[in-house]
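User: Modeling request: complex.
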Amino acid sequence: MSTTDSSTTMSPARASRTESAIVRAARLGVLRIGYEVRAYFRQGDTVFFTFLFPVVMLTIFSVSFSEASFGQTADGDEITAAWFFLPAMLAAGVLLSGLQNLAIDIAMEKSDGTLKRLAGSPLPVVSYFIGKLGQSFTTGLLQAGVLLLLGFTVFQVPLPENPENWVTFAWVFTLGVLCSAILGIALSAVPRSGKSATAVVIPITLVLQFISGVYLRFSDLPEWLQNVASVFPLKWMAQGMRSVFLPDELVVLEQNESWDLPGIAIVLAIWLVAGLVITSLTFRWIRKDS
Amino acid sequence: MTTHDNVIEVRDLRKTYGDLTAVDGISFDIHRGETFALLGPNGAGKSTTIEILEGYRARTSGDVRVLGVDPGKGGLDWKARLGIVLQSSGESGNVTVAEQLRHFAALYPSPRDVDEVIAAVGLESKAGVLIRKLSGGQRRRVDVAVGIVGAPELLFLDEPTTGFDPEARRSFWQLIRTLQKEGTSILLTTHYLDEAAQLGDRAGIIAGGRMVDLAPIDEIGGRESRVPLVRWIENGTRREQRTTTPATLVTELVSRVGSEPESLEVIRPSLEDVYLDLVGHEHASDLSAEALNETEAAR
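Assistant: Request completed. Predicted assembly structure:
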């Protein structure tokens, strides 16, 4: 162990502020994204339960129901299980990468001292959030890529050729991930310890997935349950994904027989804003007693 | 409270949790460039005090300035001038040593060279290893490295060498001496009195939320408690005498006995002896302190 070279003699840590606070927060936020994504993929349990889970489910559903038909296209092609469940799993992935991932991750960081360390450093809170949102977005996008690739190559799901559909995919995905991620940050305040985080968060995401048309066909659910699910964002994300990937004929299975894209945008935007408000009111690096 | 030569100024600091008083009106200053050791038994109020200074806890009353700023209102510019080594961490450690340090260095306006910091804490061979795969002592060295990578003006070290082997502790002391030479001001808490004696310029001893003594390290406890003790065996009986002039006593002894005195010892009370004396008197039973410690931990 050598001692620090004398050339590292301290210079006073008050740098001439050539950089504005906003630019600095953005720059450090981008830096955080790289750091967060790297750490994400080194956590075995997160990679499985958040990243690979929808991939595994798509595989199971596609194989189990390979004989079943989920309807026919106008040209008379059978709609396979893989085709039917691909949009559902894409929506589930968005929810898991945002809400489940961040709610558990931040609750853990709160209890294991990560946030306390950051609180003592000159990292702006905004940069921390940018890092988390960026992590959700990046990992969610990779996850969607894996799902699409699996669906297209292995299960021969026809992907939309119309650019309009991909534009819808882009905004539903982006709005969905941001909304889920912000709600995840808000939800991270609920578990009392890092250990209980999984027990608090997973039942919520699991129930949402069952009532929002991810594992069960939404049109099979009783109307009252459909209405309950309509309060929450996942139902709308799944509907948005169906509008992109399912043939237009299946619109008859939707509520009011419409994909209702404006409705999707409005509900997700409301949840996004609500999440932002809750987060800005409740998030603290550490619980400061008074 | 505008003295520019003080990095920390504390006046009549008080912190209560309901009926419990964790910190009961303590005052002290830390001068620029000085290493100040805050000593005391568990639950004495050390950690509460240091966390108030770091900005982690709100105080009940009293005046506190850290680098001229009220820690309750310190912004990012203020934090950029501090280095904090917290007591312990259980972080998941899914980044490598080098990644962690490079990341934290980037948060500060004028950081130290990352490779030099890694070398300074003796982790060159572990730079590419995930932090979660390190031993407890090695993780502690990463904590220290993260604390100094921002080239802080003021460094908080809360029991920094817990889990270090003796060799690592010596190396750590060497590192701290380098920082001291560079002018870093340091607030150190430790359970190792030899560490406080090695590194500290002055020490404050807290017991039961009060400062029971505050003095340069070699004057803690006052002159009385530092009076050397001469011990020897004469005619088969053990004799001992406290004296400020041990050499004179030994000379007299030699001429009186007419030979080398048997089992001669000149004992100068160590900081530890003095400390135990002080803390023991003020706080014979630590029961109430233990209780307080538990309430703090529960928060």
